[in-house]
Amino acid sequence: MKFFVKICVLILLSCHVQSKKLWWETMSLYQVYPRSFMDSDGDGIGDLKGIESRLSHLVDSHVDAFWLSPIYKSPMVDYGYDASSFTEIDKIFGTNADFESLVREAHKLSLKVIMDFVPNHSSDQHEWFQKSVKGIEPYTDYYVWHKGHKINNTIKEPNNWRSVFGGSAWTWNEQRQAFYLHQFGFTQPDLNYRNEKLSEEMKNVLRFWMDRGVDGFRIDATPYIFEDERFLDEPLSGISDVNDYSYTISIYTKDQPKNYELMSEWRKVVDDYSAKVDQVPRVLMVEAYANNSMTMKYYTSGIHFPFNFILMDIKNSSTAQDIKNFVDKWMLTMPQGATANWVTGNHDNPRLVSRLGFHRAIAVTTMALLLPGISVTYNGEEIGMVDTPINTTDPSRFRDPVRSPFQWDNSTSAGFSTNPKTWLPVNKNYKTLNLEFQKATKESYYNYYRELATFRKTSSIRNGNLELKVLDNDILAFARKAKGKNSVYVVINLNNQTKTINLRKFKNTPGQITIYKATPGVDIQSNGLVKSDAAKIPPNATVIFIGKNKKNRH
Fold this sequence. Notes:
The chain has 554 residues and is an alpha/beta fold. It is built from 14 helices and 21 strands. The strands form 5 sheets. An 8-stranded parallel β-sheet has the order 11-10-9-3-2-1-13-12. A 6-stranded antiparallel β-sheet has the order 14-15-16-21-18-19. Strands 4-8-7 form a 3-stranded antiparallel β-sheet, with no helix packed on it.
């Protein structure tokens, strides 16, 4: 009898664990680019105290967690993606104490804090690299060094590997009398994870930030961490420009099996810490610009999810079938039981409205918020910010237009700073395109975003099944349904003419449905009842309908 009871209890516990989602599985995740979010001290550069002062905006926007682009001590050649210390905050952002204060205040507001972890490389100013150059133990092999090949009394590079930023991935160091590898800039030497002491150092970095309350990590540039240790030449692609990254086919410098093994080790570090120290579930997510099969392997390696950039592939020329194929590609190849996520933009790519225009940007925002899983929003995209024209001849500054300061209001520097001169210029449209103005305007991008961010907390969106259809050459539609709950239908008209569509093509659609929400400014009656087999969708509009469950009238 005792054995029978024990089995029943175990079954009940198992069912309970499987049915209850962890905090990150349905989160709205918000990317903060710290230099551009909020300046607290008037130097024209955003900082940690500035972020803390604006946490209420994240709460108002129904954000569950935010991740910070790098704030490590850095010479800022690559704006923090070149850390000269992995455990110190750069003084332009504040201090380690400021960071701990930010985490405390965020947690008081039930916001989770995600740290950007940049493990592929450090800055060449890092103490480890300086000691590695000098051959000081244990740092000698903390980086990837190679003596090269001597041909006719000339030392040649070890192989033909190319840097992502262009040119050779090798730079000669006169003092060490060897080449060091850098898959990115020459000031960003690659760390050597085949060195066990270095590997443990980086695990300690994870523990250091967890000690300070961090709820998870976004891991940068994961496909590049390991290289084939034979240092073989990569095959040529046929591209003639030797300085182009695509000059070679990256079979030895990208997506190596050991990358995934390392992810498993880091997952164990995080899980062990949570189990032994504070019982707080933490999340690991990776940036992995890789093909679909290589990206999906991160799920099985132990990473909670790799960022899904599929919605960023949508173009103005994309058809309804194209977009359905993008979504299916992720949903149908994702491992069973895994959590999907939807990224609409980030600090490296043109802003959503600049890429697609207002109407398609609204459509993509709606998809990110109402498709299953996690939504990811880059700061400023919740108000429809656009790229800021910035004149520069520096090729490393090509991403500046998407990194301009957040537009809070119509005061000096859009409310970002008291300083009229900011690190990047504020977009001149800030007088009318700003958060304060949009809050006061009923039919605004922000009010639409905020309402959907609230709506995504409902059971149909959190837990509902997904049914995705092309109803017409220009109509993409999807339904979200949870047992016993109201069903949700999202219809996207990619045509510049009104379309009449039949939502009875979805299973068990009621005869009449209610218009819940539509693209801001579109002439359509909210809360109006329509026949589900003859719903009219205005030109270029996104319309959300609710189908009432007979047993769920509220």
